Amino acid sequence: MAEKTIGILTGGGDCPGLNAVIRAVVRKGITAYRYRFRGILKGWKGMMECDWEPLGLEEISGILPKGGTILGTSRTNPFKEEDGGEIVVDNMRRMKLDALVAIGGEDTLGVANKLASMSVPIVGVPKTIDNDLNGTDYTFGFDTAVNIVTEAIDRIHTTAESHNRVMVIEVMGRHSGWIALHAGLAGGADMILIPEQKYTIQEIVSTIRKRHERGKDFSIVVVAEGAQLVSEEGEENKLGGIGQLVAHAVEEGTSYETRVTVLGHLQRGGTPTAFDRVLGTRFGIAAIDLVHAGDFGKMVSLQGNEIVAIPLAEAVNQLKLVDQELYDLATVFFG
């Protein structure tokens, strides 16, 4: 039987654990199935431009602990360009690919789902640092981000206490508050603001005042970047700069000295945690097994402690938002 050639790409934002997935796919694909691999460079941009390099055992050696992705990434979406889907299909033939493994979040896997409907043999691996992809309990990179944010909260906590300040920490989470909630709980935040909830300035100010009135002269507020402040007129703030908005509002409303720290790209950089290395490895093994079984149009998923396959369409049909029960638990410690 002729040796098959499999393409691998990583799309969207970089994320700790991507290289663990690449390593697992290639390692098992070569040693168990005798596949050849082509690493598509810069995500879907590489598929549009036939930009690839060979991937073998030598290329994946030593990449497990490395952050980012050895293949590079981009936010290119072929279906936002004229005839983009057809170009990808044609380039699959030009690169002589028998199947494609796409590692990415909602946008990347949305492209994969559309290509699957065009009969492209494709398997998806879920990747979003925000942990908001539907159909999987956790995505790799999330645990690393939560650990980084928790450590930052711990460090900022000592400054807040020393200077009797309110410290506002802005973290990732455009549409969901998983990072803010988990890290805020782990770091002992005194208030956590997430996109799934609506907040008024008065509500935030009141919570901070209540804490100070019971003898605490510092506070930690963790804010997801997509959190929404609602004015008395019902107007919502636009995405961007929420940490500064909250800090200004708290200082104005309480007269307490307030500072803001925006963690930004610190949350996605650096080496992945052990959990994310193992999860990425498990996803990669499951993905290449799906390819070998010819079970295309699926995404690998963590459900409980099992890796299962679900339809790509199920993974991208809606965002996975924070559980209300978990948020209610966190509110016990507010103020």
List keywords for this structure.
335 residues; Rossmann fold; 2 domains; four-stranded parallel β-sheet; 13 strands; 19% strand
The percent range for strand residues is 15-25%
At the fold tier of CATH, the topology name of the largest domain is: Rossmann fold
SSE order: EHEHEHHEHEHEHEEHEEHEHEEHH
Q: Give the strand tally.
A: 13
Helix content: 40-55%
Look at the helices and sheets and give the structural class: alpha/beta
Individual helix count: 12
Poorly predicted runs are: none
CATH architecture of the largest domain: 3-Layer(aba) Sandwich
Distance between the termini: 66 Å
Q: Taking all residues together, what is the mean pLDDT?
A: 94
Largest sheet strand order: 3-2-1-4-5-12-13
Radius of gyration: 22 Å
Largest sheet: 7 strands, mixed
Would you write up a description of this structure?
There is one protein chain. The protein has helices spanning 18-33, 44-49, 57-60, 84-94, 106-117, 142-163, 178-187, 201-213, 242-254, 274-293, 312-315, 324-331, and strands at 5-10, 36-40, 52-55, 99-104, 122-126, 166-171, 191-193, 198-199, 219-224, 228-229, 258-262, 298-303, 306-311. The model has no long low-confidence stretch (mean pLDDT 94). The radius of gyration is 22 Å and the shape is elongated. α1 (18-33) crosses α10 (274-293), α6 (142-163) packs across α7 (178-187) and α8 (201-213) packs across α9 (242-254). The strands form three sheets. Strands 3-2-1-4-5-12-13 form a seven-stranded mixed beta sheet, sandwiched between helices. It contains twelve helices and 13 strands. It starts with a strand and ends with a helix.
